[in-house]
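Teaching soon. Invent one.


***
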Amino acid sequence: MHNITLELETTYESKPCYLEIISNKKKIFEGNITKNLKIKFDYPDYDFFELQIIKTGKTLDLVKLNHRQDVYIKSLLLNGFDLHAKKFGIFEQKDNPYIDDSSIQTVDLSLNGVWTIRLPIYSILGTATLIKNKFRNNIEDCDIACFGCSFTYGSYVNYNETWPYLLEKELNNKVRNYGINGSNNQEIFSNALEYSKRFKCKQMILLLCHCSRLQINDTETDELINWQPNSTETYKTKKVQELVKKRVLYGEDTVLLGGQIPGILETIELIEKNIKTKVYIGFYLEDHYKWFSKIDQLKNRLLPLFDYDKNKFPLAEDGVHPGPLHYQEWVRKIITILKHDQD
């Protein structure tokens, strides 16, 4: 289940408006809104989140008196993440005296009408590729299992310059690198969960990438696609085209992450139940790190931010990926935490 928080502010001079708030075909609220309102409710784990606010009460008498009767949608959160109501909400203004029906993008409801928002909810789990991929290391039992994208794999740096290798030398542990170039968080979590079912480790680290990346399972061609926003590839099948279009249209990171939070927490719980130890989460994107640091269940699992400062240390030879000094710096930051939890 997802947690929804809706905050409304109202201003009126003589008569408050009447609201009906409907989500998942259920009435969440019905009545006159005479003061600011904060509503919290649960939403099922569906593919889309939908909400309607039906506003009535702006009569001809109020229009003649030039009296205000406004409702302002101050905030709409999915699991604590902003759904950008101002950007994605549409107000269909209808049944208003002297004014023709029309639709506008707004969160200011001053007339009668129906405000609607409909946004996709993405799952954090995709298709595991643990057995199909060739990693830097063999898949086996180890002390620390490391999952991630190219920042874990170590693109354009030598194997002995990657952060999993440096950890192995510093801790004198068996550390294994299961990073995948061009990966996404759906693949990372799916592989980590699959590993926990088949193998053993004493600690696990997931260095997560940008949430805008998407794993697409094209059932028409039996192809697994790791899509990124900067991809210029043309996809043939309708299903993939629709998924890419949906991701581009609703491209706000908080919309995507908001829907994934329950799945992330549930998957971490499953992994930890299997390996009987803690899963650590790392980020190289500061905004992602800040968002996750506000989630109580994840605070004690967060590792220090991977500092991907292009000016602080030289990049790898491609001019895009981290260089050896970036990896050395992160290992220096996280090693104390790992040692402490091993004791």
Q: What stands out?
A: The two ends are 36 Å apart (CA to CA). The first helix runs from residue 60 to 65. The first strand starts at residue 2 and ends at 12. The chain has a mean pLDDT of 91.
